[in-house]
Amino acid sequence: MAWAPLLLTLLTYCSDADDGSVSQPVLTQPPSISVSPGENVRLACTMPSGYSNPSYRVQWLQQKPGSAPRFVYHYQASNSQGRGTGIPARFTVSPDTSNNLWNLVISGVQAEDEDDADYYCSVWAVCIQHSTTLRWRSDTKRSLCRQAIELHPVTPG
């Protein structure tokens, strides 16, 4: 039963609702934006009201046709943000917290082969930036926050 306090602490930390439940925010993005080379573009990612940063980290991914998604930028707070390897400084995130917007800003958009891509925003709770390992008896279970709350108590035996 030594793990019960740990699990309870994890559940409390991961909870974002008054009743202790955990929910996933649904993000919205405009379907497409057309710009000319050299222009600045702001790609909006809207998080529903009731979800707050820095409880959540927003990240942006870029996917070019025929390629795997590439990490572009993450933003949690002004002192906790950064761009992916090889991503130029003209990519930044400009939050508008009063409107729950987490905008990816691309300054001086480059020609088609450079910046023409699909851009995705995603979010995860701070408590699941990294997966958590929970141990009962000799069993090891890899778990994310949402899965952790669905675990049933294990009776030592």
Task: Explain this structure.
This protein starts with a helix and ends in a 9-residue tail after the last helix. The protein is built from three helices and nine strands. A four-stranded antiparallel β-sheet has the order 4-3-2-7, with no helix packed on it. A three-stranded antiparallel β-sheet has the order 1-6-5, with no helix packed on it. It is mostly beta strands. The relative contact order is 0.22. It has one domain (3-148): Immunoglobulins (Immunoglobulin-like), CATH 2.60.40.10.
Q: State Rg.
A: 19 Å
What count of helical segments does DSSP give? 3
How many β-strands, per DSSP? 9
CA distance, first residue to last residue: 10 Å
What is the H level of CATH, i.e. the homologous superfamily? Immunoglobulins
Keywords:
single chain; 157 residues; mainly beta; Immunoglobulin-like; four-stranded antiparallel sheet; three-stranded antiparallel sheet; 9 strands; globular; disordered N terminus; Ig-like_dom_sf; Ig_V-set; signal
